[in-house]
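Reopening this one. Same input as before:
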Amino acid sequence: MLSRLRYIFRETFDSFRRNATLTMAAIITAAISLLGVGLTLLSQQGFDNLLSKWEGGVEMIIFVNAGASADQLGVIDTALGNAGTFVEEFTYCDAVCSLNEAQIVLAGEPGTLALLDLNNIPTQYKVVPTEGTDVELLRQLEGAFAELPNVFNVQFAEDQISLIGQLQDFFGFRLLLLSIFLLLAAILLIWNTVRTAIFARRREIEVMKLVGATDWFIRVPFMLEGLLHGIIGGVLASGGLWAWNSQWTSGVGEFPEGSGFAALVVTDGYDKQVMLIMLIIGAAAGAIGSGIAASRFLDV
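Same output, byte for byte:
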């Protein structure tokens, strides 16, 4: 068993050496395509962060001064209740809820985030309007709520959601399409590399078959070669994604506060999940390319 493993790894790395140029081309193409996949997933998560406060049909957010008493909140509750024909439902996001949301929305502004705590963070009312309510009526409600005591700001979702949604669709679709084409190119390169390696060793393979070697015994080193192409490409892409995300995170921190880009910083280890996905896709692409080539061209 140990001798077989030594043979498999020796043949695999000998094939790397013999086809160095093709191997490097396949790995680099795989890395670039996987980096595109990773950037697509990361950007989509960033846009989802921007939209997180508008989930569940929320189209208006009423920000309330920190420390507002129950009686003061009751005034806002009453005003929202009186707008019943235009407001389907509303929920109150207390200090704990608002601080948790701030961890996402202000991830790129650590200085601002550090100043917020349960005692000074504004709380929120999230308002879901009745379906079909005219936009102009909602804007009138926005103005009326802004005049209520202890309300310091009212945000209306229409403009923000429309712009963010357009950006998300534009970047997400095009990045993903480019990544898919590059990934197909990487699979073809891996396929061609393994095919070239098989043809270069066709006489040796004939001899091995004559002495009783099975197809799988001959095939495994070539399949392992393709698998390693994909995995190495995934590792390189993961390093590139880490560098990209680190630079983006530090760069966003230097933007003016309130610029709106803070939520595009991806936190909570999601980038590590994306790296794992990239490694899995890379391994799968390598296995597919090498597996097809080894199966098709082994009869030499």
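So the earlier flakiness isn't reproducible anymore. For the record, Residues 6 and 12 are 10 Å apart (CA to CA).
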